[in-house]
Amino acid sequence: MKINGKTRLIGLIGNPVEHTLSPIIHNGISERMGNSSVYVPFKVEKDGLADAVAGAYELNILGMNVTVPHKNDVMNSLIEVDEAAKQIGAVNTLVRVERTDVETQENNHLSDKKTYGYKGYNTDMLGLQRQIHEDGILLKGNTVVILGAGGAAKAVVYMCLLEGASKVYILNRTLEKAIAIAEDMSHLQDLAKDTCIVPLPLAEYSAISEKDLIVFQSTSIGLSPNVEDVVLDDAAFYEKVKVGIDLIYNPANTKFMQLVTAHGGVAYNALKMLLYQGVIAYELWHDLKVPSEIVEDIYVDLKRAVYQKDNIVLIGFMGSGKTTIGQELAKRLHMQFLDTDAYIEEKAGKSIPAIFEEDGEEYFRKLETSVLEELRDGLHNTIVSTGGGMPLRKQNANLLKEIGKVFYLTAANQVIFDRVKGGTNRPLLKCENPYEKVCALMKERRPLYENAADYLVDTNCNDIDEVCSEIINKR
Ligand code: NAP
């Protein structure tokens, strides 16, 4: 990203902030949209919060995210707080209100109240709302169970009111906290008129008699590395669950989610909530809509950052050395080696040309994608060599990035041609002028390979040792 005199700063205030994933979201969007704004985390102590917010404004900072422990206290330093954030009692996004925007108001209404500064929003709740809408989860008229009564649970309760759930159970180990949320929300007469809120001690979950429950797991139980922990493990409870959403996204498939699916329900984690809270904040700061293709790309980046796999994926045209280099790397790094074409053939019980001939290309493409999904979910410590056409589809390119770090083995057209010209098993090159065919295909594919890759590795040298060392150093 080019930083120049017009670059705007956006950032995060909290403590600690070192492990935040938000730079991936915001810098990723800016880079892809060509916006000159840079997102930086700022560690802010409790007693420095008001100064930090005032200073940020004077430094012309466009907007800020706020995280623990400041989500509540920051409200004292804002000129206005959005209604939802006020009711939830937490602000995670500050949006700049310019002096010039309010000059007219100031002239018209002589007031002591400061009218420029930051306005606070809660995009956590909006992010979760966008996720459930996208996943087609309908709360209206349904019974919802919220496990937990912390900060996140309160945002979920508010969302349930907005969405018109008929009944909301709040189950918490500490009953007083569930009661406090229920009381706070019951004061919202207009919003809460269609929804009955019932606080319960966690241990009394069997008092819930309704079926087809939509359950939000909002406790911190089950978070990695404690992946075997779960807040409730009684099968009788899960038999009543239609949909389960775990606010935890690491691991990707929590114990709670496993129990929901084991009893016939549908389960989601809430990585999309994290994604969308960021996207919505970005949209508020920049006053624009982030295109859905960019949001999808950022989601891939986030998944990679959270579920980072140790695999190495090799892509490139035929003759680029994926198999030779892959096998050598596997030997050197004591990793497994997997060739996706061979794996597909083994699964299908026939050769790839036979799949094309008997089942058609569309079937083969679907097979490729389902194999990549399977590998994404289970593969570790493996060098993956891919078919030359595998990364050309965007969906597959995204999946490859989730499987591991992707290396594009490049070579000049002439070098590729010299490597493959004697072979008999290259149907694509069975034509009058195979060199021209290589050039035409490479012209089309090179940008797609480049887009699908994290790293480009030049193999023109034909030196296996050198290429392997470069990959090992870059990984
Ligand atoms: P919080 O305010 O600290 O609340 C924690 C909740 O977990 C409380 O209800 C607490 O019950 C319950 N709990 C903790 N240990 C328990 C135990 N051993 N047995 C029973 N209950 C227990 O945390 P929060 O901010 O609400 O966050 C909750 C979870 O949501 C976290 O895992 C967080 O990572 C996740 N989250 C995800 C996103 C996202 O973008 N996906 C956003 C926000 C939060 P007591 O009240 O009895 O202590």
The small molecules bound here are: NADP nicotinamide-adenine-dinucleotide phosphate
What quaternary form is this?
Answer: single chain
Uncertain residue segments: none
Distance between the termini: 23 Å
The amount of beta strand, in percent, is 15-25%
Mean pLDDT over the full residue set:
93
Helix content: 40-55%
Rg: 27 Å
Total DSSP helices: 20
| Class based on secondary structure composition and strand pairing | alpha/beta
Give, in spatial order, the strands making up the sheet with the most strands.
Answer: 2-1-3-5-6-4
Total count of strands: 17
- Envelope shape: globular
The major beta sheet can be summarized as: 6 strands, mixed
Would you kindly provide a written description of the structure presented here, covering whatever features stand out?
The chain is α/β, with parallel strands linked by helices. It is built from 20 helices and 17 strands. It has helices at about 20-35, 50-60, 85-90, 100-110, 125-135, 150-165, 175-185, 190, 235-240, 255-260, 270-285, 290-305, 320-335, 340-350, 350-360, 360-380, 395-405, 415-420, 435-450, 465-475; strands spanning about 10-15, 35-45, 65, 80, 95, 115-120, 145, 165-170, 195-200, 215, 240-245, 265-270, 310-315, 335-340, 380-385, 405-410, 455-460. The strands form three sheets. Strands 2-1-3-5-6-4 form a six-stranded mixed beta sheet, sandwiched between helices. Helix 9 links the parallel strand 10 (about 215) and strand 11. Helix 1 crosses helix 11 (about 270-285), helix 1 packs antiparallel against helix 12 (about 290-305) and helix 13 packs across helix 20 (about 465-475). The model has no long low-confidence stretch (mean pLDDT about 95). NADP nicotinamide-adenine-dinucleotide phosphate binds next to helix 6 and helix 11. The site of NADP nicotinamide-adenine-dinucleotide phosphate has 24 residues, from helix 6 and helix 11.
